[in-house]
């Protein structure tokens, strides 16, 4: 069964709060956990999380490729795409980085409020943010794999 | 392109305190191009037990949502993502309202741009909610549906 609770589990069925640090918003992630029919197997939430791992890996590959080909429109679309599922799972740091990629890909600054016309500035920012997003993903992935006993 | 999927949950044996007052049926359409988000929203709705029978269908973009309506389907609540390929949520909402669809259409978006959200709302939404959707947000939508009956 998933572990890494701050309270020691003294008996079957007892619940505790998983420890994810600041990479995952617990309140949001707990919404996903609440959908599990079985707190030991956690079939539903595990399937969602592991689907997300695949989705993120694929999206990062596409981001790398589009960064190489300097396709800002695609980078913006990919940032937006990964932002949605990150938000759904409570991966707030990753969601924020994806949002910034979305903005820079659309020739805006990281807030989305101001236009940046220089492609090179936007591409450079996207490059840094993709690297940051990957690190944030790895951090969340490590914590989640530990939670599901898959280290 | 993935075809719309349908799921029916029978809440007859659930333990709701107000089961005697529960609506008979709730039909929900989840429109989102992200399969993970569709799966989560579908599960949230199915777990809510806000009706004796909950029917959920999904569509991967606005055009699929439109096609469902053109083929005769109707829904109590449509959860509509804003940014989707082929036909986005704003366009789909406009088209559905132009067709005379009176369902509750709720925009669900992770977008921050105010102008985009305003255009989405003006297309004919009843409400616009931020991702992630939660059980409480959806319960509140059903309560609004009941009030407006």
From TrEMBL, chain A:
PROSITE patterns associated with the record: HPT (PS50894)
Broad class of where this protein is predominantly found: cytoplasm
Gene Ontology CC terms: cytosol; nucleus
Region (Disordered): 1-22
Source organism per UniProt: Corymbia citriodora subsp. variegata
GO molecular function: histidine phosphotransfer kinase activity; protein histidine kinase binding
Transmembrane regions listed in the UniProt entry: none
Signal peptide limits: none
Domain notes: Histidine-containing phosphotransfer domain (HPt) contains an active histidine that mediates the phosphotransfer.
Key words of the record: Coiled coil, Cytokinin signaling pathway, Phosphoprotein, Two-component regulatory system
Domain of life where this protein originates: Eukaryota
Protein's GO biological process: cytokinin-activated signaling pathway; phosphorelay signal transduction system
Phosphohistidine: residues bearing it: 80
Record protein name field: Histidine-containing phosphotransfer protein
Function text: Functions as a two-component phosphorelay mediators between cytokinin sensor histidine kinases and response regulators (B-type ARRs). Plays an important role in propagating cytokinin signal transduction.
Annotated HPt domain residues: 41-147
Keyword Phosphoprotein on entry: yes
